[in-house]
Structure formats: C-alpha cells, structure tokens
Amino acid sequence: MKPELSVVMPCLNEAETLAVCIKKAQSFFEKEGIVGEVIIADNGSTDGSQQIADSLGAKVVAVERKGYGSALQGGIQAAQGKYVIMGDADDSYDFSNLMPYVTQLRAGYDLVMGNRFKGGVKKGAMPFLHKYLGNPVLSFLGRLFFKTNIKDFHCGLRGFSKEAYTKMGLKTTGMEFASEMVVKASLLNLKITEVPTVLSPDGRTRPPHLNTWRDGWRHLRFLLLYSPTWLFLFPGMVLMVAGLIISGVLLANPVTINGITFDVHTLLFSAGSVLVGFQFLLFYGLTKVYTVENELLPKPKKYDRWFSAFNLEKGLIIGALMVLVGIGLSFYAYFGWKHINYGDITNSQTFRVVIPAVTAILLGVQTILFSLFFSVLGLKK
Question: Domain segments of the chain: what residues?
C-alpha cells in the first residue's frame, strides 16, 4: 500500500541516536495503525548511520549536495506519503508522539508547525542565546515581515502535505530552509497551524552541526531578502520624505534652533538623503520584478498593473525632464557666477540653486537607468 505518512530525518553521522528515532517512528505507525515509511536523508555519514537505518528497515536516500536544506529536499523528494513529517535524528523530538501533526494534516492544514515554547523546552535542550534572543527575535521578524501568526519559526519538527511542498518550491540548501518553508507558505496563503511540541536535550555526545551566529545570520539574511518591502521600500520612504521636508525648509532660508544655524551644508546632507532614499525605492522595484519573474516570490495582485502604469517610455520621459530641470538650474547658477566675474562664491543663495540642480540631474539619470533595467527584467511581459 502507498504510505499515508513519510517521516523524513536528515542525517550526518547520527549513529548514536538514529536507531532510537527510527524505532520511535515505527512504533508510532504500529500504535496508530498508520501506513508509513521512515526515510533517512543521508548527507555523507561516515559512522555507519546508513547501515543502522538499513538494518531497521528505513529507506536510505543518499544526498551528495551538502547542507541541512539539501538533505531534506532529497529525502522529501523520495517520500511516497501523502503527508510528510520532518525532524532531526538527534532524539530531541519524540517521533512516537506525532498524532497531533497527523490530525491537523488530515483536517486540511497544509503546514503544521511545532511550537517548542508551548510544548516545553527541557533543561539543557536549547542554548540560552537561542531561547531568549535568536528564536524570539527571528520569529518576531518573521511575523512582522510576512503577516503570519507562527510563534516558533525554527522548530525542527513539522508536517506538511506533499502537495503543499510542491507548491512552495523551496530552494535553499542550509539551515535557512526552515525559514523558507514558513515564508513561502505564508506568501502563498497556505493553511498553517501550530501544535505544542516538547524539545528534549540532544542525545548525542558530539557538538551539534548548528552554528549559532553563522546560521542565525543566514536566517536573518533570508528573511530580509525575501521581504523587499522592509529591506528597501520602508527605509527608502523614510529617507526620501525626511530629506524632502528638510530640503524644502532650507531652500527658502537658513533655520536657527537653540542658537545652532542649519544652512546649505545641512541642505547638502538632506539632498543626499533624498538620493539614497530614491535608490532604495528603485531597488525595491527591481527586486520585486526579479523575484517574481524568477518565481522566487508569488506574483502580487497589482503586479501586472505596474507594467501598464510604468513602462520604458514613461521612465525615459520622466528622467529626461528631471535632467533638463537640473541643467536649467545649473545654467541659472552659472549666470549668477558670471555676474560676479567668476569670483569666489560666498553667497549661500547660489548653493541653494546648485544643490537642487545636481540632485535633479542625478535623480533623472537614476530614473533613466532604472527604466532600462526594469524593462530588461520584465522582457517576458
């Protein structure tokens, strides 16, 4: 019979704990009357883990490409079950107690996450930094960026339907695979829920493969790169709005606050803020097009409207007009300089013309280049 459930365990030298994990999963199948299979996704073990799995009747899938995500992708690809539950083979999760996951999957949920903070973290099971800094912060950012209610983004025990896994199209090869699964499921509006899960101390005597700072950064980097709104759009808007407000005030006259005068030097910095903010906004647009066209992110509902509202011709015209405005202001400043016989410019009013002129030219050139690259990325349209 085709199995209903496949339990996939990534494996890299797990000889100390692999047997007990396999036996627990098999006892769960027998106890609950579930037709299931255990798949060991071996990532190049040299301690006899493959032989242990074979002797216990588990299916061993050799995955040459290194990495936590690579091993899981290889194991899940080989799974025959309608549902898949993945979990580490270090005996930190109880494979004999998987019924809460199966119940929710049968109820129609696409992804069922374990929540270690609801189920309980036993003493010594999670390092202090992971428990009170890494997991809470990264999970908070995940909820903020992707509008999901998942409280434990990085629980290693989770279940999903094979159909949902195919829809997600997961690509990462390292520890960030765990984050990608939740992010993609959220972006695709799949049905997600959590069940309490107990985390026990690692049963191995050797150190874990997880590297706190390196893998923590990989998770954070992934969350940022998959959220161009928070990485580019919001910072760009803040910089541009702040720069435009300050520039607008200083273009008229210097401003004195508590005896401190803000003049053209401050105007130069505020103009720089406008330029940097504008670049952030352009990168947001380019990143959005690239990720959608390469199927890294799902297509937003308004995506097709962007190409009808903004095209190459409109971008070139807007950019050219900005450049012409800048050139016009430059000539105005030039004739002012000529009026004083090309002498030293000591009047700050001249800089109030020069700075906007240079800013307009740069904004125009950036708009033209953005329009060209935007059109290249969207050639499929």
Answer: 5-225, 228-377
Which pair of tokens denotes residue 209? 């493969």
User: Does residue 209 have a pLDDT over 70?
Assistant: no
Query: What's the chain's average pLDDT?
Result: 90
The answer on pLDDT for 76 being more than 80 is yes
Terminal CA-to-CA distance of the chain, rounded, Å? 46
Calculate Rg over the CA atoms of the chain.
28
| Residue 193, phi-psi category: left (phi > 0), alpha (psi -120 to 50), beta (remainder) | beta
The residues with which 160 forms a beta bridge, in sequence order, are 84, 111
Q: Tens of pLDDT along 338-350?
A: 777 777 776 677 8
Sign of the Cα pseudo-torsion (124, 58, 72, 139, in order): negative
Cα–Cα distance, 42 to 58 (Å, whole number): 12
17-26, 120-129, 196-205 — most confident range: 17-26
Give, to the nearest 10 degrees, the angle between helix 135-146 and helix 177-187.
20
CATH number of 5-225: 3.90.550.10
- Which has the closest alpha carbon to 191: 252, 265, 270, 106? 106
